[in-house]
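Amino acid chain:
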Amino acid sequence: VPTVDALAYNCFGTDRVICPIMDARRNQVYAGLYMFEGDRFITLREQAVFAVDELVRCVNDLQRPVIFLGDGVPVYQKQIENMVTVSYSLAPAHTARQRAGAVGALAQIYYEQGKFCSAEEHVPVYLRLSQAERERKEALEK
C-alpha cells in the first residue's frame, strides 16, 4: 500500500478532495490527490514528488474543496495558505498521520481489486533519486 494512499484513506467518507502531503525537503513534497465517491476510494493524481507551488496549482485546478493532511502541512502551511484559491481545511491531528488501520483497510481493498504482489516480487517504489544518487548523476554529467 503506497504510503500517500494510506494517509489519504484516513479521511474515509469525506466529500472533499484529499491531499496528503509528506515533506520531501528542498521545497518538495510527496503527495497525491484522492476522493471518495460513496465508499469508493478514487485516485485523482497518483503519488509523486511535487514542488509545493505545483501541487497547489493542481489542487486549485480541480475547483473543489480540499482537505490537507500529513507531516508536510505544518512545514508548508504558510505557502499553502498564500496560494490556495479553493475552500480548504486541515485534517485534525488524529487523522493527519499514518495509521495502521487505514493501511490494513486499504490493503484489503487493493487485494480484492487484484492490486498486490508476493513478498518475493515486492520492491520499494522510490519517487525520486536519493541525494547521493543526484550528486553522482550531476558529477557524471559534468
About this structure: The CA atoms of residues 1 and 107 lie 6 Å apart.
